[in-house]
Amino acid sequence: MYTIRELFLTLQGEGAQTGMRAVFLRFAGCNLWSGREADRATATCTFCDTDFVGTGGPGGGKFADAATLAAAVAATWGPSPAHRLVVCTGGEPLLQLDAPLIDALHAHGFRIAVETNGTIAAPAGIDWLCVSPKAGSTTVQRAGHELKLVFPQPALPPEAVETWRFDHYFLQPMDSPHQAANIQAAIAYILDHPQWRLSLQTHKVTGIA
Ligand SMILES: C[S@@+](CC[C@H](N)C(=O)[O-])C[C@H]1O[C@@H](n2cnc3c(N)ncnc32)[C@H](O)[C@@H]1O
Ligand SMILES: Nc1nc2[nH]cc(C(=O)O)c2c(=O)[nH]1
Ligand code: SF4
Ligand SMILES: [Mg+2]
């Protein structure tokens, strides 16, 4: 059984795959926050921009098995067989994404991308792994395709993660009332540290989901 908050077609808004057509598979639930506003201040992850509670989003629901969920992902993509991309996110997708679902999505021709907080080791078979570490948590998954550090997190500066084994290193300015200052701080940091690239949340600029 998989518990899905929402399932929708959009463009990947963040990171190295920005702009690509993708089905977003948003799993319900997270291990770093309950998702309730009353708990936000005492959560491990306090800046989350996403509603991942329950199954009430577009395309959400409980899916009995991997084949049923993969068929729903394929139907959301549509009939075109080429360039199929699914982005598994949440909430924390690695609480639920398992080998049967990875195999079922591959069987439908999807390249599987994952957005994870890195506190759970990734299963085999993920085609694009994006790890976004959170201050106050223990990141066990320290290798992957892209590291996407929400910036700034004073207790988790880029220097603390810059030697982890990734192909791409992104700073993503924290969306908050201080967003404009966070963008300028990220730009200033990258001008001094060219290992890093800027990731803007382009879906928020364009107004798509
Ligand atoms: C909602 S999370 C879901 C996946 C996973 N739980 C994680 O944290 O990576 C998706 C992405 O949004 C980022 N994110 C969450 N809140 C943000 C915010 N306020 N500003 C910028 N990025 C944010 C996360 O760091 C992560 O890269
Ligand atoms: N368009 C779009 N791109 C995204 N990239 C990561 C997202 C996420 O919430 O994980 C996200 C999202 O919610 N929408
Ligand atoms: S770990 Fe990810 S989903 Fe969980 S609260 Fe933080 S940003 Fe949101
Ligand atoms: Mg989002």
TrEMBL record:
Record function comment: Catalyzes the complex heterocyclic radical-mediated conversion of 6-carboxy-5,6,7,8-tetrahydropterin (CPH4) to 7-carboxy-7-deazaguanine (CDG), a step common to the biosynthetic pathways of all 7-deazapurine-containing compounds.
The keyword Lyase is annotated on this UniProt entry: yes
Name listed for the protein in its UniProt record: 7-carboxy-7-deazaguanine synthase
Catalysed conversion reaction: 6-carboxy-5,6,7,8-tetrahydropterin + H(+) = 7-carboxy-7-carbaguanine + NH4(+)
Recorded name of the encoding gene: queE
NCBIfam families referenced in this protein's UniProt entry, alphabetically: queE_Cx14CxxC
Annotated organism of origin: Sandaracinobacteroides saxicola
GO biological process: tRNA queuosine(34) biosynthetic process
E.C. no: 4.3.99.3
